[in-house]
Amino acid sequence: MNQALRPITEKFGKKYPFIKMTHWRADSEDIAQKASAEVRAGNVVGDVLEGTGVGEQAVQAGLLVPYTTPAIAAFPEPYRDPTNMWTPTRLSYYSIAYNTRLVPENRVPKTFEDLLDPQWKGKIAWRIGSASGTPLFITNLRLAWGEEKARAYFAKLKEQKIVNFGAGSARTLVDRVIAGEYAIALNIFRAPPADQPRERRAGELEAARPGRVDRRHHGRGEGRQAPARGAAAHRFRLVEGGAGDPARRRLFSR
């Protein structure tokens, strides 16, 4: 919010003072459900949707309209939608988050196999009910290892009694790790643990990448029945929000 959405809202308001820009934050699944409810009710409030995988969800539900902008050319083709229904806005890299009081430096899992150590039984959590949590973790290993090896690994991982966390967002799960409720959380955005304020981390939170790194693009699309202000906000985000920046292009070409 503070790093991106609020600064973008402020700059957008200065450039287009005749448009009042507001925002609503939620999980991607909730964003898609809210947009769908607005369309069904014939009272569309949200002009632009952004989130992890929300573009694909909204396309499947018929909630978006196609759009074009020269700013899209800044992104490599694999990250673009050929039907122009959504545009990637960022890439997120995933890791594990762990409590440094509960996981000594010499015991930090360096590989996925290290997560099978009996000492972590009942002390690992992953987030359910989100496309970027448990499903992404499982899909990543299936693609990297193949079905046979991945299935054998998951059979062993099952014995670790991983906690299915569904009581909040990924950041809520990170807070639980900081508090010591769980020693390790799987498939957490690499940024939150690394970017936590020092006073909040209190030396108790770190991130590690055990092997192949998951990464997921975040999409943005224009809602169906979105007025011109939605198109203006979308193009502003892509151009002045960083899509044309050389650093952004390097990020998407890694």
Structure description:
With 254 residues, the protein is an alpha+beta fold. The chain folds into two domains: 121 residues, 3-Layer(aba) Sandwich (D-Maltodextrin-Binding Protein, domain 2); 118 residues, D-Maltodextrin-Binding Protein, domain 2, CATH 3.40.190. Helices cover 38% and strands 18% of the residues. It is built from ten helices and eight strands. Strands 1, 2, 3, 4, 5, 6, 7 and 8 form an eight-stranded mixed beta sheet that branches. Helix 4 crosses helix 5. The C terminus is likely disordered.
List keywords for this structure.
D-Maltodextrin-Binding Protein, domain 2; 2 domains; 10 helices
Low-confidence stretches: 192-203, 212-218, 227-254
Report the average pLDDT across residues: 77
Largest sheet: 8 strands, mixed
**Radius of gyration, CA atoms, in whole angstroms:** 20 Å
- Give the count of structural domains: 2
User: How far is the N terminus from the C terminus?
Assistant: 25 Å
CATH architecture level-2 label of the largest domain:
3-Layer(aba) Sandwich
**SSE class:** alpha+beta
